[in-house]
Amino acid sequence: MWTHAPWRGRFLPHPLPPQDRLRAYATWCNAVEGNTTFYATPATDAVESWARQTGPDFRLVVKLPKSITHERRLQGADEELRAFLRAIEPLGPRAHALWVQLPASFAPGDLGALAAFLRDLPRSHRYAVEVRHRAFFEDARSERLLEGVLTGAGAEWVPFDTTTLFQSPPVSDAERDAWMKKPRVPYRSRALTDRPIVRYLGRDSTERTVEGWQRWIGTVTEWLREGRSPTVFVHTPDNADAPALARRFHDEVRARLPGIEPLPEPDPVEPLTLF
Questions:
Q1: Which of 60, 133, 166, 197 is the most exposed place for a label (fewest CB within 10 A)?
Q2: Pairwise CA distance, residues 66 & 74, whole Å
Q3: Same-domain pairing of 8 and 129
Q4: What is the CATH number of the domain that holds 86?
Q5: 131, 157, 183 — which closes off a domain?
Q6: How many domains does the chain have?
């Protein structure tokens, strides 16, 4: 996301070399979804650049390649997994969690494959799983079985909250595109580990986006009081204002818990001059 074109000149200086964009983004937010790794295992030099641009406390939630999760469906992917784990080694502690996003067709009957996959993963990383089959949200037995698999592996369940998007019909091209592509699953806010991860999708309207996240403000505040360390990603259909919205979410949590550290001060977008 740190290369998102609409952010250039608004949140990120422009022009800005690709090798500096993550560093500039990291002055706005202290975490990012590593979504590009879904499409291909990154080159080691690219990962080394990500590490150079961020501090050790920066959080990358890195998605496993689709060749593992969607094409092989977690089975017979040992070679691809080893290559991926080697590639991300330079991230060190910045690899906050490895994100196993599963297709909507991955159903309760496939939980054996997930259990075996998680069991064989190295303990040097934390893992977070996102499911999209509605049975995991609507069938109590399927929910319990999945929670048991995840808890047994020390893995987190990543909710993707799209309920605000689907509250009413779309009003823009970006919202219509999101309606076609994003999963329509029930709201879930139960954390399984001390590092919960939330993905929230709002609307084009800032007012509606902020209104929709209010219950997450309460949940995240409670998690922090319990000693957990949550990571929240804020999206909108076009993501044009996502960095500013993420900071606003953080500020709303800080208003309830003033002891939470503020986010870093963003770099100026325009280059400094003497005149």
A1: 166
A2: 10
A3: yes
A4: 3.20.20.410
A5: 157
A6: 2
pLDDT at 270 over 80: no
Q: Are strands 95-101 and 127-130 parallel, antiparallel or unpaired?
A: parallel
| Secondary structure of residue 188 in the 3-state scheme | coil
Looking up tokens 């800080």 gives 254
Full residue range of the structural domain in which residue 101 is found: 1-157
Pair (53, 84) in one structural domain: yes
Euclidean distance between CA atoms 58 and 32, whole angstroms: 8
CA 5 to chain centre: 19
- Residue 190, classed as helix, strand or coil, is coil
Strand order from edge to edge, sheet including 160-161: 160-161, 197-201, 231-235
Amino acid (1-letter code) at residue 11: F
Together in a domain, 9 and 130: yes
pTM beyond 0.85, yes or no = yes
pLDDT digits (tens, 9 = 90+) for 160-197: 999 999 999 999 999 999 999 999 999 999 999 999 99
Long-range contacts from 121-126, C-beta under 8 angstroms, 24+ separation:
121/81, 121/153, 122/85, 125/85, 125/95, 125/97, 125/98, 126/96, 126/97, 126/98, 126/154, 126/155, 126/156, 126/193, 126/195
What one-letter code names the amino acid at 5? A
What are the tokens at 69? 């999760």
Nearest to 53 by CA among 92, 26, 82: 26
Share of the chain above pLDDT 70, in %: 98
